[in-house]
TrEMBL record, chains B, E:
Organism lineage string: Bacteria, Pseudomonadati, Pseudomonadota, Betaproteobacteria, Burkholderiales
Keywords attached to this entry: ATP-binding, Cell membrane, Membrane, Nucleotide-binding, Transport
Xref: Gene3D superfamilies: P-loop containing nucleotide triphosphate hydrolases
Protein name per UniProt: ABC transporter ATP-binding protein
Family membership noted in the UniProt record: Belongs to the ABC transporter superfamily.
One Pfam family of this chain: ABC_tran
GO terms assigned for molecular function: ATP binding; ATP hydrolysis activity
Keyword ATP-binding part of the UniProt annotation: yes
Species annotation: Orrella marina
Domain ABC transporter: 2-219
UniProtKB/TrEMBL annotation, chains C, D:
Alphabetical UniProt keywords: Cell membrane, Membrane, Transmembrane, Transmembrane helix, Transport
One BP annotation, GO: alkanesulfonate transmembrane transport
Domain ABC transmembrane type-1 stretches: 50-234
Organism per entry: Orrella marina
Lineage, highest ranks first: Bacteria, Pseudomonadati, Pseudomonadota, Betaproteobacteria, Burkholderiales
Protein name: ABC transporter permease
Membrane topology note: Multi-pass membrane protein
Membrane-spanning intervals of the chain: 7-31, 61-81, 160-181, 187-204, 216-234
């Protein structure tokens, strides 16, 4: 038997990297005589598809938006552990010499990926300033494209993440706001309902390996960051920043429930989701902080 | 022996073969003469089974037929040897001697390696004759096979054809514009006009009736100038 | 009768699809049932999104593919006309032909901005090469005997091209245009990834990201069927117009 | 001399690139300077990533494109051999030709899983149609006089195909294969989006996500140059092998 | 007047035109005879400027030349009218009368709308003759132009050619395999053998020397069987 798990490094999923590089999951699963196969399949929708088709047992890292949408679309994806709440990894970045506050965004061109936590951050930031999404000219595109558009002066602000933020800053762009205080982007580890049902022992093993990775990271922080930098191909300094931005976690807690609720209502309001889902039901009990 | 009964063939509005009835192959060599555009090649293609007719019956105990077309029709991507090898059935395919022999028959020994684009008009025509000979046919249908050849080569090939017919119980239907050639090698001569056989002469004691040449000229003359209109309906 | 036969397979596939879907073996999330897709199509149509997407995408493809064909012909002519130009252009063209347009989006945005120019550029990059290569190879394949004839008739360059070179290349060009059209139609997805707010490609991407597989299927099927329709129309138009001169391009 | 000319344009582009980069007008993250890219290439090479990516992608493309060609020939033969088969297959093939492979990933994952099969499927879908359509049209275009000749020679189906139909289609097939190869090479990006952990497409996507534009450029240029090289080799091989039989496929 | 001096042309190893010197065009009609493959068509193509020679000088005050090729060379995608229109310079392009007249000259009135695939061999050849006539050439180079025509049509066209030459100060170089034809319409007769002009006869008082036919046969005979080897180096 094999356990198929996706390997998602970005934005800076250090537990994943350590778990894979140190063979932690392999040794846990070996106790059950199960092989581990890693798949580099990273986008949320593709991981959800692969969970549905049974090609994937564990989605290494997914954002909660993907989990909610999958469930709303009838694909029962369940959260088995937390990974991080990287509120600083997502930001609205203004072009060099362009807007530097949310208020200045009024009537400006803002580009970024629609239907993501970045989109949600933008909406929340605008609402906080008493505006709506209709007060800016929102243009849909992926992060690399938005970065290129920002750098070539085609737009006034871009919704960027992780490395793109640092690169943009180096080029003179300024961060208007991060997601902190506006939304809580949450990255989680997920599985399909079928696997959770059939192989609860696998889930436990995955969580154990995940925890072992976290323990190693906290004990060897420098080494861990160095490993992450190497794996991600970024400088040590950048890796340190990414580490600080990431806000790692191993479990979800009660505070995540309202965050998920907020995210869901955002998506329902913006027609990104057609029907609500029961949030309690998509979080496996093991995923919650024991308090 | 092949018998064509009331064969008609149209191309669009134009009736090219018009209720034609003829029996072929009762003589070793039948020559077919007629004005340009009167339907000789069409008739040959019908006999060879390459063209269907609109009405009429072809009563042929289908023997092995080979056709020499009016143009050489060599395949440009095959050299002479390969073009000739196409005519050999698979069993003898590996026999290079056949091909050499056939090329010798048409006086083209040694050009196996050439491609059609490197041949002169007459050479290409002779290769296509060699190809037909390699098929070892019982009936040989030839459409102006010697038209592109000089007098000497032509008479050599005529001799070859005559001896071939004599030796191998080959029957031959032969379209030509050269009345001397027709007289020399055929045993029977058919005159075609506007899709019909309008006259037929038979050689007796090695001789055609001496009025034949004048008769033929009369038939051919008749068609000139209106050969286009005659057969329209 | 002909038409009927060509509908056999689509119907068979539809039935098979229905069977699989109703057997419950496959997650309805990955393969929604035909009726679900039909409902989704109806609601997309009712909301006007579907027709709008179709119109936007059609005009985008027609513009992009039109430019593609014009450029491809011009390039083929240039390259055919001069050996030097051919050698000069060979490397850049081969490179462009091999590089995935999607990998070039940052550069395209740099050059062409985020307006429709970039979208057209992606469609052009996706579809120009079949047209170009087929046209070039078609033009190159002039029968040497026709070339000789043209010289003996002292045809000018223009008439030589118009009456001998071009007609000789027609069957190749047609193949190239048909292949290229398929790619330009397919490129909608890539093109509408960038800054589009409507169109069939956008509809598909958007629905895919939101994991609405039924809408994705509506998009896919619409793209497929419109493309098929246009291809068939093109085929029949050509047969009507060209079959006398080029009997080989239509089957009897 | 010939070779020299075809290097003129790449060198000119390189100089232009250097000029732009050193002018500082363009963000170095969008268009890193040639030397930056060169350094990145050297370090990618030193770490073994580059050669590994090249090998992985080459073998992926060769497999995918090989299957593509075989399938395309088989389909062309089938369709050419029987009018009924042609009509039956016309709709599914036209649909598949028009649908963007990237839009079909959910279905591909459903059918082929997330292993290399799906990657091959994407490469095949991207490259099969130029080969198929060019081959089909080439086979269809048998000279009627050659067809008549074959009947009078009583050639069997196989020999007719081998000596008459196939050679007549060779120039078209070559064009199709060249066009198709370009697309299979381009499809690496799309293919390696799904569950690949190595390869040039993966390198590009990954570096793009990490905002390492220098590595992206290394990937793009490597893809372009290897493709160009293979295309040139193919061309020369063909000229050497086929120029006697098909003088028209090579320029004098 | 065109003068060829020491012309040599090779195809690969084979010397096809071998140090040939001849002056053309001092007579209204020059006939060229020779065995199949001896280089007649090649010579014609050199004269017409369609083929370069490896060495030698062609001294031609290049007049307007028209060529009738050994095969019809009609463009398959053009109908007869369009094929003929190609021969008209742009200025007269719109004149349908020219084309009708030329088709009448070759006895093919009324086939303007047909495509080449719908013509018989002889008809196609006549269309190609009409095309050459439409070029209004000063020098007409004809490569076996009447080879595919029946006796009557052929003699009509011979007459047309003779009267054309008489009326329009046209000069004609004429390859033929038919010695009667050569005798009838030419004023001078050249015999070619293995890439050289080996003999030349001039018509005096409307008559060639009576030994000519025998002489020619001798020259032609000489080449048979070894015409391939002769010219190899
Ligand atoms: N393109 C070519 N490549 C190689 N050899 C050639 C080429 N064209 C002609 N030849 C050779 O040159 C010789 C003369 O050819 P040419 O066509 O001039 O003969 P010809 O006198 O016109 O013969 P025919 O009466 O049969 O037409 C032949 O042996 C032929 O094989
Ligand atoms: N495929 C076709 N389509 C239309 N008409 C045709 C076709 N083939 C032949 N014809 C017509 O049929 C008539 C007879 O043609 P055919 O080739 O049999 O003549 P032929 O007697 O062989 O003449 P030639 O001596 O000139 O070769 C011609 O008028 C020609 O125009
Ligand atoms: Mg005929
Ligand atoms: Mg000749």
């Amino acid at each position: 038997e094999t356990l198929d798990i996706s390997y998602v490094r970005s934005p800076f999923n250090l537990q994943m990297i350590v778990m894979k590089e140190h063979g932690l999951l392999e040794s846990e699963m070996a106790k059950q005589n199960v092989d581990v196969k890693w798949h580099e399949i990273t986008s949320g929708s593709q991981q959800a598809q692969a969970l549905a088709s049974g090609d994937l047992d564990i989605a290494g890292v997914m954002n909660t938006a993907s989990v909610l949408m999958a469930n709303a679309a009838g694909n029962p994806v369940q959260i088995l552990a937390g990974v991080s709440r990287p509120t600083d990894t997502f930001a609205i970045v203004g072009a060099k010499g362009g807007p530097s506050t949310v208020a200045e965004l009024k009537g400006k061109k803002v580009a970024g990926p629609k239907g993501t936590v970045l989109h949600q951050t933008l909406v929340a930031a605008l609402v906080k300033e008493g505006m709506t999404i209709n007060d800016v000219e929102f243009i849909q595109m992926g992060i690399p494209q938005a970065f290129a558009a920002l750098q070539s002066g085609q737009i006034d602000a871009a919704l960027l993440a992780a490395g793109a933020i640092m690169n943009a800053q180096r080029e003179g762009a300024q961060t208007i706001t991060t997601a902190t205080g506006l939304t809580v982007p949450t990255l989680v580890m997920a599985t399909s309902e079928g696997v959770a049902h059939k192989h609860p022992e696998w889930i436990d093993a995955v969580i154990r390996a995940h925890d072992m990775a976290a323990r190693w990271i906290s004990e060897n922080k420098e080494q861990a960051i160095e490993l992450g930098a190497r794996q991600q191909g970024v400088s040590l300094a950048d890796a340190n920043t990414l580490y600080d931005w990431a806000h790692f976690t191993q479990r979800l807690d009660q505070s995540d429930i309202p965050n998920l609720q907020a995210e869901m209502s955002f998506m329902l309001d913006n027609d990104l989701m057609r029907k609500p889902v029961n949030i309690e039901a998509i979080i496996l009990p093991q995923a919650m902080q024991a308090n | 022996m092949t018998i064509l009964k009331n064969i008609t063939r149209r191309f669009g509005d134009q009736v090219v073969i018009n209720d034609l009835t003829v029996e072929l192959g009762s003589h070793p060599v039948t020559a077919l003469v007629g004005a340009s555009g009167c339907g000789k090649s069409t008739l040959l293609r019908i006999v060879a089974g390459l063209l269907t007719c609109d009405s009429g019956v072809i009563d042929a105990n289908h023997k092995n037929m080979a056709v020499v077309f009016q143009e050489p029709r060599l395949l440009p991507w095959l050299d002479v040897r390969e073009n000739l090898a196409l005519a050999l059935s698979r069993a003898h395919n590996s026999d290079p001697q056949c091909i050499q022999h056939a090329l010798g028959q048409v006086h083209l020994a040694g050009i196996e390696q050439k491609f059609p684009r490197e041949l002169s008009g007459g050479m290409a025509q002779r290769v296509s004759i060699a190809r037909a000979l390699l098929q070892k046919p019982d009936i040989l249908l030839m459409d102006e096979p010697f038209a592109a050849l000089d007098a000497i080569t032509r008479s050599e090939l005529q001799q070859m054809l005559i001896s071939l017919v004599a030796q191998e119980s080959l029957q031959c239907l032969f379209v030509t514009h050269d009345l001397n050639e027709a007289e020399l090698i055929s045993n029977r001569l058919l005159v075609m006009h506007a899709g019909k056989i309008v006259a037929s002469f038979v050689k007796r004691d090695g001789q055609y009736p001496c009025s034949m040449s004048a008769d033929i000229h009369q038939y051919l003359n008749q068609s000139l100038g209106h050969n286009e209109n005659l057969s329209h309906h | 009768m002909q038409r009927a036969k060509s509908l056999v397979m689509p119907l068979a596939i539809l039935m098979y699809w229905q069977l699989i879907a109703s057997s419950g073996l496959v997650s309805s999330y990955l393969l929604p049932a035909p009726e679900t897709v039909w409902t989704a199509a109806k609601s997309l149509y009712a909301s006007g999104i579907l027709s709008h997407s179709i119109l936007v995408s059609l005009s985008r493809v027609f513009q992009g593919f039109g430019i593609s064909c014009v450029l491809a012909f011009a390039l083929a002519l240039l390259v055919n006309g001069s050996r030097t130009v051919e050698q000069l252009l060979s490397a850049p063209l081969a490179l462009l032909r091999m590089i995935p347009p999607l990998a070039m989006t940052p550069l395209l945005i740099l050059w062409f901005g985020i307006g429709s120019t970039t979208q057209l550029a992606i469609i052009i990059l996706a579809s120009i090469f079949p047209v170009f290569l087929n046209t070039r190879d078609g033009l190159r394949r002039v029968d040497p005997s026709h070339q000789e004839l043209a010289r003996s008739l002292q045809l000018g360059r223009l008439r030589y091209f118009r009456w001998i070179v071009l007609p000789g290349a027609v069957p190749s060009i047609i193949t190239g245009v048909r292949v290229g059209f398929g790619y330009s139609w397919r490129a909608l997805i890539g093109a509408e990834l960038i800054a589009a707010s409507a169109g069939l490609g956008y509809l598909i991407i958007d629905s895919q990201e939101m994991m609405r597989t039924d809408d994705v299927m509506v998009g896919i099927l619409t793209i497929g069927m419109i493309g098929w329709l246009l291809d068939t129309l093109f085929d029949q138009l050509l047969c009507r117009k060209l079959s006398r001169r080029f009997p080989e391009i239509c089957r009897s």
